[in-house]
Design a protein that fits this description.
This protein is α+β, with helices and mostly antiparallel strands. It has helices at residues 40-68, 80-95, and strands at 2-7, 13-21, 24-34. The radius of gyration is 21 Å and the shape is elongated. The chain starts with a strand and ends with a helix. The mean pLDDT is 88.
Amino acid sequence: MSLRFKVLAKGSKSLYLDTYWNGSRHYEFLRMYLIPERDEQDRLTNQATLKAANVIKAQRTRELILSQAGLAPPGSGMPLMEWLLQCQKEAEEAAK
């Protein structure tokens, strides 16, 4: 997975993730842009944007690795309390 840039007509750069996984390529445009650096504020803005894009890249990489290992990413399943209540209900029904 690579973080790449596409240069736009007005000089800014669009950020996207280029993923090659299991023989296929996938592009995910992040709707994040680097602007031409004219002053210190522009440079700081671009640094924050790149930092956020790298966080997204890390999340997507983690999701790919977990899916390859057959594990579900955190937060994608049933909440623990709900699962415990369901187990308790099933145990009570089985005891009848």
